[in-house]
Design brief:
The complex is a heterodimer of chains A (447) and B (231).
Chain A: H1 3-13, H2 15-49, E1 55-59, H3 64-71, E2 82-83, H4 84-92, E3 99-111, E4 114-119, H5 123-126, E5 128-129, E6 133-134, E7 137-140, E8 150-153, H6 155-161, E9 168-174, E10 180-193, E11 204-207, H7 208-226, H8 233-239, E12 264-265, E13 267-272, H9 277-290, E14 294-297, H10 299-353, H11 358-399, H12 415-435, H13 439-446
Parallel strand pairs in A: 4-11, 8-10
Antiparallel strand pairs in A: 1-13, 1-14, 2-12, 3-4, 3-13, 5-6, 7-10, 8-11, 9-10
Helix pairs in contact in A: 1-11, 2-10, 2-11, 10-11, 10-12, 10-13, 11-12
Chain B: E1 9-19, E2 25-36, E3 41-45, H1 52-60, E4 67-72, E5 75-76, H2 82-92, E6 93-96, H3 108-117, H4 125-134, H5 150-162, E7 168-172, H6 180-196, E8 200-205, H7 208-211, E9 216-219, H8 220-223, H9 225-230
The chains are: A alpha+beta (447), B alpha/beta (231).
């Protein structure tokens, strides 16, 4: 029989008290784990999601973080549009030397609560997610450039809405009066993307040309109805952030131009050409200088700033809070063992009478404290990950970030020495009582 | 520190006193000499509160005498450090308490194994099982103390005292809390166990019936000058 077993038997003997003590420790550890894992996953997922393109060019209106949140994560509406020529300049114009690939996107409208993003079919061939994974289709295929009323949808959209290949949907957008308006045009789904664990899963991708066509038609109707051109959409977009913000210059005309140059997008996703890294690095500043109405932002930098500036503080506060809970649980552990020492004087005296050294009985009490801490800690880790697993669906649907109950973080390993240290500290006082037990007196009192 | 005398146990000029809460010094033991041979079975008789348990504690090294020598198997245990004394006790002395003092969280077998845990070497599970069977509790091997009668608990206590193959067993009123039917069983197990393994036995009791069964009976008053002065 070793000392671990002696300590374990002692825990078993006080099963209810031990279980409650371990459970309070488990709650504290679960919170620590949840904070650590969620933060790490968010941090990594945000940064990983930004990969594939390393620059976003959008309107200067609004801050760079707003552009990232709206363009990468669809967490808010875009703050304006940019001319299609910007895309052309990046793709084949004056910036083409520093650009490997550029994809225009226009974010506007929604279907069943999911954002509709209009783009070109090359998006899915040009970019890779999580570094090197290509976008693949679960069913159907990509739309082609000339199929202007075609679209593909993300995996979550398909699952949640029941839409599938061959189905059609209409785009709804919020009006300036805070109501909603549904376009009459329908997009037919040609493909359903495989799940990627990125925000793309929650998006309906329509053909950009169909999107333009739809808005040209809408404004033509509005103009005919009112006999006047609609208010400037971009200004309206500022006043009503919820308002559908993608407009294009042609909307002011009853007869919109067929030229793509007359259209607008909300952003251009750019993968820089790093052959000349100095020029590639210089590109965002150059765009900003040459076109003050534009801003070019590096998504990973903005996300990093956001985490450092905002979530970093939140994580620190949450961690302090969680650690305080663990320390409180540790004090509870000390009180529990300390209170048990009075009734254990005889047990300790018996062990001493059987030849156990003072240091041995002290060690048994410390081991008991460590076992309770580690047991509670292990339970807490399970509980923390179970909570993450239980809420993973909600997190994914709300943010597009896929988390798993098994998303363990290396930093969790700190919990093991941390809990052992905490257990040793809180177990020291009761262990000292065991050390100082007067054997003869305890045996006399115990019978 | 090693003596070469033949006696297994030698107490010489042992004095022990306690201080009362009001500061008065209360002498308990004053034993000029007391010896026990290897394998010998001795019963010490005396009234309750006359110092029998204190004497056993001094012999076991649980309580140190104020003066004198306590030599066991040639070792003066009063000169050993506390941890050396603990180790010595674990390896050489078995103890049977009046109230059994089994650890409630452990099974009968584990309580016997516990008697082997603090000595040198690994606990011998086979011997522990054999001892539990020898005291007639093979069917109670995995029962906890609260699941056993007092007689059975004391039998486990006897097995635990023998577990580490000690040279000396100290039994403190081992039958005092046992029903009459079980008293003789416990006594026989204890004496036979000691005889079979050539272990010396010092048993203290206030029961004349128990004392009458031992070949050597020592009234504590005969060896303890504190008591003889009172009488």
């Amino acid at each position: 029989m070793n000392l671990w077993k002696i300590a374990w038997r002692s825990i078993q003997h006080r099963a209810v008290s031990s279980a409650l003590t371990a459970f309070s420790m488990a709650l504290g550890v679960a919170l620590v784990v949840a904070v650590l894992v969620i933060y790490q996953i968010l941090d990594r997922s945000f940064k990983r999601s930004s990969q594939g393109y390393d620059l976003i060019v959008g309107p200067a209106r609004g801050g760079p973080l707003e552009l990232v949140l709206s363009t990468v994560y669809y967490l808010q509406n875009p703050r304006g549009t940019i001319p299609y020529e910007v895309y052309e300049e990046l793709h084949s114009g004056r910036y083409a030397g520093e650009v490997e690939a550029a994809i225009p996107i226009a974010i506007g409208g929604f279907y069943a609560g999911f954002p509709v993003v209009s783009t070109v079919p090359e998006l899915f061939q040009t970019f890779r997610y999580f570094g090197d994974r290509p976008y693949e289709f679960e069913r159907g295929q990509n739309f082609s450039a000339n199929q202007i009323w075609h679209a593909v949808i993300g995996a979550t959209v398909a699952r949640r809405t029941g839409l599938d290949v061959g189905d059609k949907f209409k785009v709804t957008h919020t009006t300036s009066g805070q109501g909603t308006h549904e376009h009459t045009e329908e997009f037919e789904i040609t493909g359903v993307l495989k799940p990627t664990g990125t925000p793309f899963d929650r998006v309906l991708f329509s053909n950009l040309r169909g999107f333009w066509e739809m808005h040209q038609h809408e404004h033509a109707v509005e103009s005919a109805d009112t006999g006047s051109a609609p208010a400037d959409a971009t200004t309206a977009g500022e006043e009503h952030p919820q308002e559908h913000s993608v407009q294009h210059p042609a909307e002011h005309s009853a007869e919109p131009s067929e030229s793509e140059d007359a259209h607008s997008v909300t952003a251009v996703l750019v993968k820089r050409d790093w052959t000349n890294s100095a020029r590639a690095l210089e590109l965002p500043r150059r765009i900003g200088q040459e076109s003050p109405e534009l801003q070019a932002v590096v998504p990973s930098e903005e996300v990093a700033k956001m985490f450092e500036g905002l979530l970093g503080d939140i994580q620190t506060v949450l961690l302090i809070f969680a650690v305080m809970i663990v320390i409180t649980a540790g004090i509870g552990l000390m009180v529990s063992i300390y209170n048990s020492m009075a009734e254990r004087q005889l047990e300790i005296a018996i062990m001493r009478a059987l030849g156990a050294k003072r240091s041995t009985v002290m060690l048994v009490v410390l081991l008991e404290s460590i076992l309770l801490s580690l047991g509670g800690g292990a339970l807490g880790v399970l509980l923390g990950h179970s909570l993450i697993g239980a809420f993973s669906g909600t997190i994914f649907e709300q943010t597009g970030i896929r988390v798993s109950a098994l998303s363990a973080q290396p930093v969790e390993l700190i919990l093991i020495p941390g809990l052992i240290a905490l257990a040793s500290i809180v177990g020291y006082m009761p262990a000292l009582i065991a050390y100082r037990t007067d054997v003869a007196k305890a045996l006399a009192h115990g019978g | 520190m090693v003596f070469t005398e033949e006696s297994l146990l030698v107490l010489r000029d042992v004095r022990k006193s306690f201080q009362t809460p009001d500061g008065e010094v209360l002498p308990i033991l004053d034993i000029p000499e007391f010896t026990v041979q290897a394998g010998e079975q001795v019963v010490i008789v005396g009234e309750s509160g006359c110092g029998k348990t204190t004497l056993l504690h001094v012999i076991a090294g649980i309580g140190r005498p104020d003066e004198g020598q306590v030599r066991i198997d040639g070792w003066d245990i009063t000169l050993l450090s506390e941890s050396e004394s603990d180790r010595f006790r674990a390896e050489n002395i078995g103890y049977v308490f009046q109230t059994f003092n089994l650890l409630p969280a452990f099974t009968a077998l584990e309580n016997v194994l516990l008697g082997m845990t603090f000595g040198r070497g690994r606990p011998d599970a086979a011997r522990a099982r054999q001892l539990v069977e020898r005291v007639g509790l093979g069917h109670r091997m995995h029962h906890r103390p609260r699941q056993m009668s007092v007689g059975e608990q004391q039998r486990v206590s006897v097995a635990r005292a023998l577990a580490n193959r000690p040279k000396l067993i100290l039994a403190d009123e081992p039958t005092a809390n046992i029903d009459t039917g079980n008293q003789q069983i416990i006594l026989d197990l204890l004496r036979e166990g000691c005889r079979e393994e050539n272990v010396a036995l010092i048993l203290v009791t206030h029961s004349p019936e128990v004392a009458a069964q031992f070949p050597r009976l020592v009234p504590l008053a005969e060896i303890n000058l504190i008591l003889s002065r009172k009488t």
